[in-house]
């Protein structure tokens, strides 16, 4: 066996051992039961955000539903699918699933294995918002965008944080990007590792962005409270629609293989027994 191959195998084994020692699984959805998403895990945001945030605050073109057409489990994957159809006052239908009140965490590793939609106008997101908004309305209480992908930039994904000091309204949001040429053709693991000191952003265990806690107050770091997970596929909007909306590509879907949340073993609130095994797909 070549020395390089042996070194890589040893490195992988070391990483796996360290991960198993440090982290404990506290919440998961493997999407094994066909039908509607598990209601013990997920709720829905519905409509177009009106009257307070028409277009969900970003001038988006979809209305979110709880219909199986837009959100369902099939073949071991969660499907979030956008259709071009008049829905209420919107030109598209889609879905936005939230774990609020059913999965809320302070610190940990959140990872989602997903395959992304394609085409101009799509805006897929895996992200987090505070469950109780301890510091006030957005952006004061923060936002963590684990992964965002817009269809006109097919080969790139982004990770971003927002707070009172750092947000897109001011043009001060803190973010990183990574080149991922097959984001629309293959599954990848999008993850953060969130501690009291920093938030690290990963794709397939490649670290590409770190946001540090500098101790300058909640205006920069409101990330000392529980957050919940959001999975959605938006259409158009201030970012996703910057280069128009493609014709003839609908429906489009984001497919999610699994969601897994870990916490450091000394802090974990264990939802699963210690010998819980994760079924590998």
Short structural description:
By secondary structure, this protein is mainly β. Helices cover 9% and strands 42% of the residues.
Give structural attributes:
single chain; 281 residues; mainly beta; Jelly Rolls; eight-stranded antiparallel β-sheet; globular
How would you explain this protein's 3D organization?
This protein is mainly beta. It has a domain at 22-31 and 97-264: Jelly Rolls. Helices cover 9% and strands 42% of the residues. It contains 2 helices and 18 strands. It has helices spanning 3-22, 237-240; strands spanning 23-29, 43-44, 62-64, 71-74, 77-87, 90-94, 96-98, 104-105, 108-115, 122-130, 143-150, 156-162, 174-179, 188-194, 198-203, 206-212, 227-235, 252-264. The strands form 2 sheets. Strands 1, 3, 4, 5, 6, 9, 14, 15, 16 and 18 form a 10-stranded mixed sheet that branches. A hairpin with a 2-residue loop joins strand 4 (71-74) and strand 5.
């Amino acid at each position: 066996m070549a020395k390089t191959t042996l070194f890589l195998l040893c490195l992988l084994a070391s990483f796996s051992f360290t991960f198993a020692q440090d982290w404990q699984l506290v919440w998961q959805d493997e999407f094994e039961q066909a039908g509607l998403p598990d209601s013990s895990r997920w709720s829905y945001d519905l409509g177009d955000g009106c009257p307070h945030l028409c277009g969900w605050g970003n001038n988006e073109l979809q209305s979110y539903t709880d219909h199986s057409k837009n959100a369902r489990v099939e073949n071991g994957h969660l499907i979030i699918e956008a259709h071009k159809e008049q829905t209420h006052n919107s030109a598209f239908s889609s879905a936005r699933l939230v774990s609020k009140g059913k999965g809320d965490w302070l610190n940990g590793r959140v990872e989602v294995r997903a395959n992304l939609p394609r085409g101009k106008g799509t805006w897929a997101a895996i992200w987090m918002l505070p469950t109780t908004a301890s510091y006030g309305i957005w952006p004061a209480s923060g936002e963590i965008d684990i992964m965002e992908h817009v269809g006109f930039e097919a080969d790139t994904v982004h990770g971003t944080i927002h707070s009172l000091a750092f947000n897109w309204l001011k043009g001060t949001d803190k973010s990183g990007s990574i080149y991922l040429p097959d984001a629309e053709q293959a599954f990848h693991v999008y993850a953060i590792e969130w501690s009291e000191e920093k938030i690290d952003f990963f794709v397939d265990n490649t670290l590409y962005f770190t946001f540090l806690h500098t101790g300058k107050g909640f205006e920069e770091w409101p990330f000392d409270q529980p957050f919940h997970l959001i999975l959605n596929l938006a259409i158009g909007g201030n970012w996703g629609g910057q280069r128009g909306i493609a014709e003839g590509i609908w429906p489009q879907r984001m497919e999610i293989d699994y969601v897994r949340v870990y916490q450091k073993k000394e802090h974990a609130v264990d939802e699963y027994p210690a010998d819980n095994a994760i079924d590998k797909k």
